């Protein structure tokens, strides 16, 4: 995971990025700092944006500049310690709410990049990211479709020398269900082509290795199929027979407790762990973005947490987006961000 603390930063806070300033990111970050669990956290972002967010969420919340991440521990209650990020657009407040703006995309990306620098230097214990907007990334010329891909690239500086990217995967989790994705931000047509033997096997391996941080030494991993009824023996597609089944067999040969492929419309019900219904599985591996995320989000976005598995540091985020429709109203709920913060503490 993250590097050991340096002599310059004996205490390592959790860093929160402010997200897209046209969305609810700054508001939910400000709302989080009205909770005691925000102690020991620092915000990477813009002072003026965070002061506006403090006002939008009820005022009576100080916003103070800090010079080092570790200075967050000296912040008084009801104070948001902000570590300014260099190079942000100077007119962020003019970007407005509820719309795609290149300035917001550029600022969000810069905050993520700074968070990775601090994590790699051992100055923070984990990264918790507020929502970004993928169209704003694109408008700003950010060469990544989302958080996961950007973090993957920044975590491996050797990629500039042609070294391969480290394998990472998206996991969405709450108290009842954990799901890990083989493919993420691709069109469905491209995602189907990306479901390969190697990709499925690597996902199972990453899920297995990462489970130890959740206290699961021998996780039961259910692998969902790609096609209806997991292909029904080849009647509705043969990816289960050609790709997914062999990958499961290879994982089992490595000592991993993987099973399937199971019908994707029922496996999540079997894995859901609730009082009176202990889950049959600890983790579900799903082939595509919506296959895996719809079940978790249906249980309540205020409880879900996005965790990037495979990084050399801890990164979590809420399981919702920028919510442009309510941005600037001060009504955004910080429940999922608080859950992401709790998860980051646990994993770090």
Explain what this protein looks like in three dimensions.
The chain is an alpha/beta fold and 348 residues long. It folds into 2 domains: 14-165 and 311-347, 3-Layer(aba) Sandwich (Isopropylmalate Dehydrogenase), CATH 3.40.718.10; 175-296, Isopropylmalate Dehydrogenase (3-Layer(aba) Sandwich). Helices cover 33% and strands 16% of the residues. The protein has helices spanning 25-32, 47-56, 102-120, 134-139, 147-154, 188-194, 197-210, 239-253, 267-271, 289-298, 335-347; strands spanning 14-17, 41-45, 62-65, 79-84, 126-129, 169-173, 178-181, 221-224, 258-262, 283-286, 305-309, 315-318. It has a 12-stranded mixed beta sheet with strand order 3-4-2-1-5-12-11-6-7-10-8-9, with helices on both faces. It is elongated. The model is unreliable at 1-9 (pLDDT under 50).
Question: SSE layout and pairings?
Answer:
Blueprint: E1 14-17, H1 25-32, E2 41-45, H2 47-56, E3 62-65, E4 79-84, H3 102-120, E5 126-129, H4 134-139, H5 147-154, E6 169-173, E7 178-181, H6 188-194, H7 197-210, E8 221-224, H8 239-253, E9 258-262, H9 267-271, E10 283-286, H10 289-298, E11 305-309, E12 315-318, H11 335-347
Parallel strand pairs: 1-2, 1-5, 2-4, 3-4, 5-12, 7-10, 8-9, 8-10
Antiparallel strand pairs: 6-7, 6-11, 11-12
Helix pairs in contact: 1-2, 3-5, 7-8
> Can you tell me the overall shape?
elongated
Q: How many distinct helices?
A: 11
Beta-strand content estimate: 15-25%
So what's the CATH class of the largest domain?
A: Alpha Beta
Poorly predicted runs: 1-9
Question: Alpha-carbon distance between the termini?
Answer: 8 Å
The main pleated sheet reads as: 12 strands, mixed
């Amino acid at each position: 995971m993250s590097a050991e603390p340096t002599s310059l930063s004996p205490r390592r806070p959790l860093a929160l990025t402010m997200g897209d300033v046209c969305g609810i990111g700054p508001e939910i970050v400000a709302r989080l700092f009205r909770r005691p669990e925000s102690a020991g956290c620092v915000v990477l972002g813009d002072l003026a944006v965070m002061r506006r967010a403090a006002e939008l969420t009820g005022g009576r919340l100080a916003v103070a500049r800090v010079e080092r991440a570790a200075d967050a521990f000296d912040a008084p209650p009801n104070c948001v310690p902000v570590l300014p990020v260099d190079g942000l657009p100077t007119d962020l407040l003019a970007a407005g709410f509820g719309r795609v703006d290149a300035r917001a995309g550029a600022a969000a990306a810069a905050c993520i990049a700074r968070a990775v620098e601090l994590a790699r230097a051992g100055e923070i214990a984990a990264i918790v990211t507020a929502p970004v907007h993928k169209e704003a990334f694109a408008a700003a010329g950010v060469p990544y479709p989302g958080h996961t891909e950007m973090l993957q690239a920044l975590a491996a500086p050797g990629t500039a020398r042609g070294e391969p990217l480290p394998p990472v995967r998206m996991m969405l989790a709450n108290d009842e269900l954990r799901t890990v994705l083989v493919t993420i931000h691709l069109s469905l047509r491209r995602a189907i082509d990306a479901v390969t033997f190697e990709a499925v096997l690597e996902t199972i391996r990453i899920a297995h290795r990462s489970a130890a941080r959740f206290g699961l030494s021998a996780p039961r991993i259910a692998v969902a199929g790609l096609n209806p009824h997991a292909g029904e023996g080849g009647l509705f597609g043969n990816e289960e027979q050609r790709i997914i089944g062999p990958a499961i067999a290879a994982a089992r040969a490595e000592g991993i407790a993987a099973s399937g492929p199971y019908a994707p419309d029922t496996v999540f019900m079997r894995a859901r762990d609730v009082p009176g219904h202990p889950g049959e599985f600890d983790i579900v591996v799903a082939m595509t973005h919506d296959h895996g995320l719809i079940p978790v989000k249906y249980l309540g976005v205020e409880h879900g947490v996005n965790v990037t598995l495979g990084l050399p540091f801890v990164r979590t985020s809420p399981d919702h987006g920028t919510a442009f429709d309510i941005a600037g109203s001060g009504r955004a709920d910080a429940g999922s961000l608080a859950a992401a913060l709790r998860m980051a503490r646990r994993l770090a």
